[in-house]
């Protein structure tokens, strides 16, 4: 009963806290915002995300003067699978060289929320409402779009991420002892059972299919004993565009992970007995978006995303 009471107290506390603050409060006096023009080439858009360490960026239509969607690495997985199934390598490369973000809406699935201009929020609404929207769309970020009072046109203020919401909450909640007391197991955080795993010989195209078909963002890589030895993340796909290797999607993942940049942060893990505060501390210090849950034998048993954490903390 004590655990249930503590959980209820934590949820009440964080829900109340998020309702008292809005998106503007998360923004520093000076901050960087990457906005991509809808007519920019796909290759340049990917380079902008990669060079600035971003996973998503708002898309702006210069002609209409309006926000029109969000470009993320989720788009890239759908795109690569589309070209692999429908075109030869030569055709794909020729098409991709000329592809703009505007063109993606004619290629990607109609239910792809990342290209939906309605995926937005006002910077004045509560962080609670923004959090609910993040969870409903299963996206890691939502653009905060205000309206210029003189021109009545969109003004993109920021691209608010789940990471920022959790970071703001963890930095300002005073009752940290509650977060230290409750574990991932207590809060039932994460996805377990039916976990998609691969080995080092698995072709990358099979992993891309897992990303798209199962709507997952990372797949653990295991050895012959089932022990976690690495992971392949959706953001790893950008390396294939950067290196001009779309003709090598059947390469084993052990070769694909060699394409990573030297500053790759590595695979981050946790255990179900870890407390919430320690996990949030790892997330904040390492600036990561997901963790792989392992057992005492270092075998993967689940995946925890920032959305999983946020969902468990609010009503």
TrEMBL record:
InterPro entries noted in UniProt: AMPK_gamma/SDS23_families, CBS_dom, CBS_dom_sf
Pfam families tied to this protein: CBS (PF00571)
Example of a GO MF term: protein kinase regulator activity
Occurrences of domain CBS (ranges): 187-249, 260-315
Protein keywords: CBS domain, Repeat
CC terms in the record's Gene Ontology section: cytoplasm; nucleotide-activated protein kinase complex; nucleus
Record Gene3D superfamilies: CBS-domain
Family of this protein: Belongs to the 5'-AMP-activated protein kinase gamma subunit family.
Protein name per Swiss-Prot or TrEMBL: CBS domain-containing protein
Lineage: Eukaryota, Fungi, Fungi incertae sedis, Zoopagomycota, Kickxellomycotina
């Amino acid at each position: 009963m004590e655990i249930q009471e503590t959980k209820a107290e934590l949820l009440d506390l964080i829900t109340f806290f998020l309702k008292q603050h809005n998106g503007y409060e998360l923004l520093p006096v000076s901050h960087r915002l990457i906005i991509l023009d809808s007519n920019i080439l796909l290759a340049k858009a990917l380079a902008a995300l990669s060079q600035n360490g971003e996973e998503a960026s708002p898309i702006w239509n210069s002609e209409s003067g309006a926000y029109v969607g969000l470009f993320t690495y989720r788009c890239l997985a759908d795109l690569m699978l589309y070209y692999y199934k429908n075109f030869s390598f030569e055709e794909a490369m020729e098409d991709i060289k000329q592809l703009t973000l505007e063109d993606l809406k004619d290629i990607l699935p109609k239910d792809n929320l990342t290209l939906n201009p309605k995926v937005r929020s006002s910077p004045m609404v509560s962080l609670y409402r923004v959090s609910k929207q993040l969870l409903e769309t299963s996206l890691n970020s939502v653009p905060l779009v205000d309206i210029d009072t003189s021109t009545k046109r969109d003004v993109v203020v920021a691209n608010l991420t789940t990471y920022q919401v959790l970071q703001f909450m963890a930095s300002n909640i005073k009752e940290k002892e509650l977060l230290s007391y409750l574990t991932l197991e207590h809060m039932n955080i994460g996805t377990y059972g039916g976990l998609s795993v691969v080995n080092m010989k698995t072709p990358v195209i099979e992993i891309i299919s897992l990303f798209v078909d199962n709507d997952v963002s990372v797949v653990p890589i295991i050895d012959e004993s089932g022990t976690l030895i690495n992971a392949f993340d959706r953001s790893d796909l950008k390396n294939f565009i950067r290196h001009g290797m779309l003709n090598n999607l059947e390469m084993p993942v052990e070769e694909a992970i060699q394409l990573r940049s030297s500053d790759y942060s590595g695979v981050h893990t946790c255990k179900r007995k870890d407390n919430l505060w320690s996990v949030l501390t790892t997330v904040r210090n390492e600036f990561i978006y997901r963790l792989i849950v392992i057992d005492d034998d270092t075998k993967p048993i689940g995946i925890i995303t920032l959305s999983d954490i946020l969902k468990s903390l609010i009503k």
